[in-house]
Design brief:
Mean pLDDT: 87
Low-confidence stretches: none
CATH class of the largest domain: Alpha Beta
CATH topology of the largest domain: Rossmann fold
Strand order of the largest sheet: 12-13-11-14-15-10-16
Helix content: 40-55%
CATH superfamily of the largest domain: P-loop containing nucleotide triphosphate hydrolases
Structural class: alpha/beta
Radius of gyration: 33 Å
Bound molecules: adenosine-5'-triphosphate
Number of domains: 5
CATH architecture of the largest domain: 3-Layer(aba) Sandwich
Shape: elongated
Number of helices: 31
Length: about 900
Amino acid sequence: MEYLIGQRWVSHADAQLGLGVVVEVEPRRITLSFPAVGEERTYAIENAPLTRLRFKVGDHINTVEGVELVVTDVHEQHGLLMYTGTDHHEEQIAVSELELDAFVQLTTPQQRLLNGHFDKNSDFALRVATLEHTDRLQRSPASGLMGSRTSLLHHQLYIANEVGQRHAPRVLLADEVGLGKTIEAGMIIHQQLLTGRASRVLVLLPPSLMHQWLVEMLRRFNLHFALFDIDRLAQMDEGNPFEAEQLVLCSMEMFEANDHLQQLALDAGWDLVVVDEAHHLHWSEDEPGEDYRFVESLSQVSPGLLLLTATPEQIGQASHFARLRLLDPSRFHDLEAFKEQELEYRQMSAMADALEAGTVPEDLPADLDRSLPAGELVNQLLDRHGTGRVLFRNTRAAVEGFPQRILHRHPLPVPEEYAHAQVDLIERLHPELPYYDDSWLDFDPRVEWLVKTLKELRPEKVLVICAHATTAVALEHYLHMRAGIRSSAFYEGLSIIERDRAAAYFADETNGAQTLVCSEIGSEGRNFQFSRHLILFDLPMNPDLLEQRIGRLDRIGQQHDVEIHVPYLEGTPQETLLDWYDRGLDLFRDSCSAGTMILETFRDRLVEQLKTRTEAFDTLLVDSADFTHRTREELREGRDRLIERNSCRRDVADALINEIEGLESGDTLENYLEALCEAFGVDQEFHSEQTLILRPSEHMLTGHFPYVGDEGTTVTFSRDKALAREDMEFVTWEHPMIHEAMDMVHSTELGNAALGTIKLKGVAAGTMLLEALFTVNCVAPKSLQVERFLPLTPMRLLVDARGKELANLVPHERLNSLVEKVKKPTALAIIKQVHREVDAKMSLAKAQAEVRLKEVLTDAENLMRSELGAELARLEALREVNPSIREEELENLRYRIEECAIHIAHANLQLQALRLIITT
Ligand SMILES: Nc1ncnc2c1ncn2[C@@H]1O[C@H](COP(=O)(O)OP(=O)(O)OP(=O)(O)O)[C@@H](O)[C@H]1O
């Protein structure tokens, strides 16, 4: 037999490899690649255990593109087989054998059974359990949400569930500072990946957060992101580097003034793009920034887009709108209309209240269908006239359980040296700035105060933030060299690795620094909640930035009240600004989502007062306090209430938490993992309650078991333990260890044919029972995501000699406990005798399964039509008011609905496992 590159062969010694493809032919050796298992094998041509795979007319074949064909013609072209066949649309398609899917079922369980290839009954039970668990997980409302190493927090689970389930989610995650947006994004990414809705993800963020993200994704979600920086890109020589990885983290800065790199990122194609600290995207009506335009281009090529910012309006309302438009251009297409709608939020909120209380308000907008159920009407109201379904924002007030913030004001005298200089406002707020040397350290009283305070607070960790890198560097140097305080600096001049080292030194409990002195870049995104003392060496001119600074400590995980210390020079603009934030906005005690808007309202008056404080300052304070109070009220009643409605529904979150806790309690997973370990030859040892040590043994079934290295792995099933002990793997149904092991069962023949005997009272010896397990097999392009409507749906049948169905009478678990193994020679003798009977019973079982399949497919189609139909109805309704929604978008969705229907209609049964049982 002649081998040619591109031909498809099967290893009959190892059918689990799937369909191989010849990749290299040498005089005596041949190499095949087996894409299904990602392996290459080289054989001696003389005795290669290979069989050429040749399909016949009438066979069903699957292509790598996910198309199923019924073969109508086969012919050879230059040694390769060309198949012609018809697809689900009755269209004729020609494919070369090279395009065949590598996952082929070469022998059916029936053939294996009748040829005497049995597995152990425990393997059969494992296969059945695997299929049932897979189906249960596919259906679970918490699917995709149970695998993260996080506490189960209502607001995060709600958002992750809402967003993660969307097809191509596009949302703005705008929870207040420190409430867990990174974690929410991680949950969404995790869920999208796990459910197959996304496979390529690009995260763009400020350089100071890269490492933190990398670590959070790994330790909390087992997501291995590749970190791209200029150095790494320089090392990659050929091709598009972004195509080499599926999950990529990189800094936004890297793309600055680099059109070529931007184009490479655009060309690589993504399912989901995430932009952290998205308020940085520069935008103005006349001239959007380069970063904004880049994200805009990405948003056009990526179906999914997550923008993260705690302060969405930091750069103003128009800029906020521009970001919303990136997410949902259909909904947010007109800034003026958006502004007008904002004015009506209070009214909309009242309408939503009324709807929930059971009345349909008279003035309900005309485009809503009054006959719909109240819940649906509320959703439509929020979507079309409220804040839209793209914006999620939880507040400390709504989440509850946060510690208090306590302000300590420390007035200090103005030194002689500062009294004269002071040219512009910036210099008066930061009088050290004009000094090119460090001489100011000797007379600025804030420095002496800082040293004294740090010594008093010792050994408490203290975070110090100031606006400028030069100030931070000088201060840290002073503390370190002249005051003997263990400290570290964190500023933009350091490389990413140096910054992370500095942060890690600060975080180290035993030998770490007492204090970290940060420039403004340390005020964003970083996690410093292990400390409770914050010193603001100066104050920023933006309330949102102040909120960001406080948010480093006041975030999830903070165990104490947050002590905020502000040293200031008396009688200078520093005091005026502090007074305005403190007494005007009450910002130290309570966060406020309208900080920028309040600043804009009073900016001129404030700047006047900062320049020269007069009696009018008291009026400014009163006016600011009054305005802030009213704005807070207004937001609470209007916009924030609408957003809150969108951002967390306690009952839904409760149900999710119950579901996850239910799946974690009990020992189902533990027992399943034990069964996996037994089947694959992994040793287990008790470590402590709910915790095991797994080690590879000498009789492993395959060379490797996921996540079990040579040294062994400690795994815990307890969420609490996993949160405290990062050295242990937190094993859930969604941990990659379980996931990959389940795949190993699915994709091989393990346990798909078995034989056993049982004693059943009242049943004559020698009676034959056939236990068959079918699943629904739907071949469809991945992009349609048909499995969300049509999960695996295992169907178990147990037929006796007369074809009677006994599955309910004798459950699978009962059979497992009764069944006994049969010696191989006896089994082979039995098989010989029952050959024909097995065939006959199989036909009966299959016929019964076909009946059930019909119902399953009808339900799946109905579900699909109702879910996708609702999406279509929304777009159609929005199109009425928004001409920018293109007809193609609607057409596209209609096409998707019909495509799904066709593939559902063509789904068939797959026999997954077969067991022959003889009574004795
Ligand atoms: N569910 C959770 N379980 C355990 N820790 C959590 C959870 N959610 C958040 N955290 C921790 O709380 C801190 C804040 O979370 P995160 O960084 O996601 O907040 P953020 O909203 O992105 O903050 P910022 O606004 O500062 O960017 C982090 O240390 C994170 O690890």
